[in-house]
DNA sequence: AAGGGGGGCAACCGCAAGACC
DNA sequence: AGGTCTTGCGGTTGCCCCCCT
């Protein structure tokens, strides 16, 4: 396959297009069609390379281009398609009439990607970020290490902050267990050879165990000086922890494993977004009274690469387990 | 009011693959 | 069958505008 020499000719104009150039290009294409892009510039009287003309036409001058802000529907469509197709901008653009791949790519890079990251999602896998490196900023904010270093605070308060960080890591790990294909394979597995046999109900119990821990955490830590964390005193610290996913933005779950793929926490129970369903299922709160001992095969939970099988990307790093996390009794239950 | 920095977007670059000769 | 041409695509760059200090 030979490569196009394209714009290596000297003397051809580059950079922003002038209105006169736009007019020439539009008039020529309206009259003759674009034909061969390589021949077009000369025929249209433009001192540009054909590639530049093609880009200008397809990304800006084409009459059917819809400009302006992306609607919520379009945003949701992009999210859904990106979770399936990855960075196949042209394929995504075919589902959004009037939008160009370039426009969608820019919108993704400048808005959606950041939005996902802020919400604790991996923009490549569309899954909650399970690696603690990715969550580190949150954890640091929670633990507020600067405050830990402050001798004015008693040891108990410092311990409470660390406990918050551990709690968040637990939540994210459980989300990972429930949402990743390897986790889903683990959950509900009836394979007697596998050490990792967490049933659906056990998983739900596990999730339901969090609020009580969270409440305990609230009792432990919410009396701390919220102001020092830069958090409004009217809202509990823990409620401002970015717990994902947020209910106001449904993330693509139709391509995820056939378990309940999205779980959000709210009120007295959990809301689950299941495959092929747009409406959430409410699961009543089950008191975490009889949580069975959980044993997870270490190798099976350390393969989050499988968690992004629907994407063309490699996926996140394996969960990182710091010492304080492993030493926690809760972790020993599942690890 | 002015300057610096960051964000957003248009355009470019280079690779890949199909079409054509 | 192999080389060249053309087009499409994704990643990157650079400019411009706006906001903050």
Automatic annotation (TrEMBL):
Record-level Gene Ontology MF annotations: DNA binding
Keyword Magnesium: no
Record keywords, A-Z: DNA-binding, Nucleus, Repeat
Gene Ontology cellular-component annotations: nucleus
PROSITE patterns, sorted: HTH_MYB, MYB_LIKE
UniProt name for this protein: Protein ODORANT1
Annotated SUPFAM superfamilies: Homeodomain-like (SSF46689)
Domain HTH myb-type: 9-61, 62-116
Pfam family, any one: Myb_DNA-binding
PANTHER family per the UniProt record, alphabetical: BINDING PROTEIN, PUTATIVE-RELATED, F14D16.11-RELATED
Start and end residues of each Myb-like domain: 9-61, 62-112
Claim: Phosphoprotein is one of the keywords in the record: no
Location in or out of the cell: Nucleus
InterPro entries attached to this UniProt entry: Homeodomain-like_sf (IPR009057), Myb_dom (IPR017930), Myb_TF_plants (IPR015495), SANT/Myb (IPR001005)
CDD domains assigned to the protein according to its UniProt record, in alphabetical order: SANT
């Amino acid at each position: 396959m030979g490569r196009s020499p394209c714009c290596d000719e000297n003397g051809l104009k580059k950079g922003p297009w002038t209105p006169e150039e736009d007019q020439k290009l539009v008039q020529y294409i309206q009259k003759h069609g674009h034909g061969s892009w390589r021949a077009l510039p000369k025929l249209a009287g433009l001192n540009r390379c054909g590639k530049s003309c093609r880009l200008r036409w397809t990304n800006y001058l084409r009459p059917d281009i819809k400009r302006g802000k992306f609607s919520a529907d379009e945003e949701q469509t992009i999210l859904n398609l990106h979770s399936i197709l990855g960075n196949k901008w042209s394929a995504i653009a075919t589902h959004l009439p009037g939008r160009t791949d370039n426009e969608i790519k820019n919108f993704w890079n400048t808005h959606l990607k950041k939005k996902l990251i802020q919400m604790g999602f991996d923009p490549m896998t569309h899954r909650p970020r399970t690696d603690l490196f990715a969550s580190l900023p949150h954890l640091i904010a929670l633990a507020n290490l600067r405050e830990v270093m402050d001798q004015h605070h008693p040891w108990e308060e410092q311990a409470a902050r660390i406990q918050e960080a551990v709690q968040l890591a637990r939540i994210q790990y459980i989300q990972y267990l429930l949402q990743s294909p390897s986790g889903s394979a683990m959950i509900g597995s009836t394979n007697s050879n596998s050490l990792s046999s967490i049933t659906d109900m056990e998983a739900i119990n596990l999730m339901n165990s969090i609020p009580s821990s969270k409440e305990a955490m609230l009792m432990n830590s919410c009396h701390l000086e919220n102001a020092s964390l830069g958090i409004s005193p009217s809202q509990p610290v823990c409620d401002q922890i970015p717990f994902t996913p947020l209910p106001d933005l449904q993330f693509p779950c139709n391509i995820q494993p056939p378990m309940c793929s999205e779980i959000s926490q709210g009120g007295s129970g959990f809301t689950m977004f299941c495959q092929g369903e747009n409406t959430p299922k409410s699961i009543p709160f089950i008191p975490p009274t009889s949580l069975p001992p959980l044993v997870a095969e270490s190798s099976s939970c350390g393969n989050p690469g499988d968690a992004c099988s629907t994407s063309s990307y490699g996926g996140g790093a394996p969960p990182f387990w710091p010492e304080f996390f492993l030493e926690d009794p809760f972790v020993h239950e599942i690890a």
